[in-house]
Amino acid sequence: MNILNAIFRFYVEGFRRMTLGRTLWVLVLLKLFVIFVILRLFFFRPAMQGMTIEEKQQHVAQRLGIPLDK
Amino acid sequence: MDPSLIDWSRAQFALTAMYHWLFVPLTLGLGVIMGIMETIYVVRGDEYWKRLTQFWMKIFGVNFAVGVATGLILEFEFGTNWSNYSWLVGDIFGAPLAIEGIIAFFMESTFIAVMYFGWEKVSRRFHLASTWLTTLGATISAWWILVANAWMQYPVGMTFNPDTVRNEMTSLSSFFTVAFSPMAITKFFHTVMSGWLTGAVVVVGISAWYLLRRREERFARSSMLVGSIFGLVACGLVMLTGDTSGVIVGRTQPMKLAAFEGLEDGSEHAPLTIVGDMKIPNMLTILATHQWTGFVPGINDILNGGYKLPDSTTALSAEEKMSRGTIALEALTLYRSAKNKGETEKIEDLRTRLQENLPYFGYGHIRDKHDLIPPVGLLFWSFRIMVGLGSLFCLIFCLLVFLQYRKQLTRWPLLLHVAVWCIPLVYICSQAGWICAEVGRQPWAIQDLLPINAAVSALQSSSVRVTFFIFLVIFTLLLVAELRILFNVVKKGPQIDETTSPNT
Known about the structure:
The complex is a heterodimer.
Chain A: H1 2-16, H2 20-43, H3 53-65
Chain B: H1 3-20, H2 24-44, H3 47-67, H4 72-81, H5 83-117, H6 124-153, E1 159-161, E2 166-168, H7 172-179, H8 182-212, H9 217-252, H10 254-261, E3 272-275, E4 278-280, H11 283-289, H12 299-304, H13 318-341, H14 344-357, H15 376-405, H16 413-439, E5 444-446, E6 450-451, H17 452-455, H18 461-492
Antiparallel strand pairs in B: 1-2, 3-4, 5-6
């Protein structure tokens, strides 16, 4: 427990003493919000979402097995 | 397939990858330079070097904070825009990317905390170890990403399973074949060393800026000394690994090499084109084969086939490859149909037919043999920008090291100005290198196995276009924020008391 406590205090004190780091953390958190909340939820839905494994196999096999100009 | 969908999907991926690549090389290079500076601090016990290291750690921190997680967007794009590709390569990409995530990322993120928070909390040696381990973590991370990329350029170690429609790693040895393929090894070293070069150029450029303004002079001279010697070493290593890379590309992706050179017809004594009609006789043969005499195929040779390959077999023409690719596609469709109908007598025959023609699988999707030629003009000039700027950096590092040895650095302000301007140039050089690697692979997403038109998901072109512009806005804002913070840090300077120690 002492080790965990020391690690916890190490991080807490480290974050408290930050100067430039505060600005950078704001930037990082903002960016992560944009990436994981806005982009991931609204713009990047996996194209084969909702398909079973067999359906995915069949979908890709059909797509790859037929020459695109035919 | 809507051609604009392919173009927008490619443009979006290129934009994201290029943006991500703005941050990675500086992380790799500056990490080593910080490690060297802190090692000097620990060995000498001189606080001045500690302050020096701390300043460069600030620059590292800004770059790291803006760059971190931008690579994740690429993974989103794999699933959304390139779903066929993702399914086909899932097994190959899964292992390296998972290892990258688990080992390298956690290693990097754990020790980076000690690096920034631990100056007064842990011993000097533990802190030094943390700095080096952060850099090592970033480098290992780069290794796995480059293994995945190298596999797309030179797909080895996998078995195509027509039942799952995936390239699978079936044994531990196939994992090692993927992880340590010659392409992966050279790509790793060439890319990481180019990151070292970027770090050195940035350190030298910022130091030159201080020297031109006659401020922080002692700090700038110390940083310039470390940066320029390290840069010179990095230049040598980049040239060495670039040379090895050229031989491997010549052997495994001859069309890419021919496009770099704009070489239409090959020869046993192929010249290296500088620009226009300026050529060095026989040099391309020497660089591509490491032999005095050796056939380097041109674009027409690769399309027409008939020349001897390094393994003494005869190269097939594009038409033959396209014909065998069509057989492979048909065999896949018939195999799956036979399997569904339970026609066991046909299954083995079709599987054999598929395996025999599998090396040409992707050619079944090529409509015109001229589609196999990547954009020659873009590659020709990107290659020259990369090599030309790399040579310029070597020259500048040589001059800087020499002038520092002669103690005449500030007598050459023009050279210091050039060193400052090298900062944007090293990024152009680095991006040009990736254009060579990735555009040179076109039309392939996976060399010979999957062209981009078959790899792309069937999406609305307009939705991909919208996200492209959303990214453009987000990336531009982030880049502006980073540059503003960076410029402020540099303008503020290291704020070192330059009289604290005589040991420089």
